[in-house]
Amino acid sequence: GGRGGQAESAQAKNSALKEAEAVVPESFEDFEGAIKATYNKMVKEGSLKPQPDIPAPSVPQDLIAAQKAGKVRVPTNIVSTICDDRGEEPTYHGVDMTTLMTGDKNVGDVISLLWFKRQLPKYATRFIEMCIMLCADHGPCVSGAHNAIVTSRAGKDLVSCLVSGLLTIGPRFGGAIDDAARQFQRACDAKLDPDEFVEDMKKQGARVPGIGHRIKSKDNKDKRVELLQNYANKFFPSTKYLQYAVRVEQYTLTKAANLVLNVDGCIGCLFLDLLHSTKMFSAAEIKDIIQIGYLNGLFVLARSIGLIGHALDQKRLQQGLYRHPWDMVLYTK
């Protein structure tokens, strides 16, 4: 049809193709016969050499169907042993949300399940929460909070502010908890006398991590340290490492009044006591926990609360871009 009229009909097209010496079957059903006849003619004339048939490729089986039939196993990319979200409700190391929410479980219990893969006793999970509460913030002047504040004032989003602060946590800021646990464990297990331990560290040109404070001293003890010590003495079945740290402190205080057991040292030692007290961990597991850096993880988690607080505080106060004052910089050659 269309504007071409007769010239565009199927018959006209077929006639034109025939005139041009094309092979035109009478109908669609005759296609197969026409192809076969043309092939035979070309073979007879010698213009086409028959080739052996190529076996048709087999159609691959559908992966999901094969999986269901148990014929194939898909390789896994990730191994996870702490949680499962495939059921009706997510589980944290086998404990479902209903149990967590309707029982007397708390943040400490969630950490206990997801980090330690144990249901730690109440005194232990309460201690974990105390550490988070005590370490949540330490004012706007420490490097992490300063970074978060400067980033917030630069107009950045909350995640950027938090990350900016978190990136300062390491061996000098926060990492002392891990180091204190490692060193006190080493010294206490080797039964080193406190003076021997301190002097050995001194010979190596290292300070004892967890000892010393810029402001606190013998007569002005850190209240946080006292709170933790009192709690542990009351509820922990064993405080072997804390007792050792206190003996080390007695020795270091003879050197200088500010060489007190600080909050990092106290948490480090008490965490060792917690791991030993519960009798749920082997010596190898305890060594692993201290080496991997679980305690730094605790500090990261705790300090995130304060860093978010500082970032939001600056936005609420609508503080402008921070610039360091010139008179706070010593320009020198």
UniProtKB/TrEMBL annotation:
Gene3D superfamilies per the UniProt record, alphabetical: Citrate Synthase, domain 1, Cytochrome P450-Terp, domain 2, Succinyl-CoA synthetase domains
Gene Ontology molecular function terms on file: ATP citrate synthase activity
SUPFAM superfamilies for the chain: Citrate synthase
Database matches in Pfam families: Citrate_synt
GO CC annotation, single: cytosol
GO BP terms: acetyl-CoA biosynthetic process; fatty acid biosynthetic process
Record text on subunit structure and interactions: Heterooctamer of 4 alpha and 4 beta chains.
Name this polypeptide is given: ATP citrate synthase
Organism: Apatococcus fuscideae
